[in-house]
Amino acid sequence: MTPFRIHILGCGSALPTLRHNPSSQIVEMRDKQFMIDCGEGTQLQLRRSRIRFTKLGHVFISHLHGDHCFGLIGMISTFGMLGRTAPLHIFAHKDLQPILQSQIDYFCQGLEFEVIMHAIDPELNDVIYDDRSLTVTTIPLSHRIPCCGFLFKEKPLLPHIRRDLVDMYGIPLSQINNIKKGMDWTSPEGEVISSDKLTLPSDPPRSYAYCSDTTYDPGIAKMIEGTDTLYHECTYADEERGRARKHFHSTASEAASIARDAHARQLVLGHFSARYDNETAMLKQARAIFPNSVLAAEGKVIDI
Fold first, then answer.
1. What is the Cα 280 distance to its own chain's centre?
2. Residue positions annotated with a catalytic role
3. Is 297:8 a contact under the CB 8 Å cutoff?
4. What predicted TM-score, i.e. pTM, was given to this entire model?
5. pLDDT for 115-145, tens place per residue?
6. CB neighbour class for 172 (10 Å; exposed up to 12, middle 13-18, buried from 19)
């Protein structure tokens, strides 16, 4: 299968610690890289993860709290020093545009690449990006300010070719893609071999849902139904449910309930409060509801 990976660059909450960086991830899809959130220190994490800056073309910002976007201007400045020429597309709430533009005008004069802003409405469940490989859809979340998650969904793949039959019938390699797209093959003797016979079903499309930051919202499950992997914030352990409500965050069990109700295959817990020295208790609480739960960690790579 073609690569579909998540690189965790930061999975802490607002206060950086020696254990966790603020929120940022890279979604690797085939030969493209997409960034979700860009907290302070993200470009250093890119270096540590040995991720090539040049492949990054799109950044999706969930909301305008500093731990999700303070790293943007530093990364843009570094791109400029590296001589980047390819455009950088940023998808975020409209209020980011004047803030970021003023920083670029002051700190990054003479950039040789264009920073293209795409205003999104965090309150809509809407497709905001579409290419030949995937779509990205916003997931409205419930936080103190407008906030959304993102659903990365792979488009259906072409079926697999049966090389044994291709060789047996002497079908030219130039016809492989046509057969995958549904065309039958007619042999020199006039025999018609259907594309169904010459192919095997394609791999099912994969998807990844990112939901941070949000209070517990059962409606999320319907928007991400059947997702392969869900990253859901669990800023607090279950004992701090009152604090989670006050600050519009979720607990471990609440994150697990969303994964269960969405029929996800895997849950990745993240956005941990700085009050915890480790997250073992939260993992145990989540697994009591959704067994296939794991903890996010800086440098962790998740294959979808």
1. 24
2. 67
3. yes
4. 0.91
5. 999 999 999 999 999 999 999 999 999 999 9
6. exposed
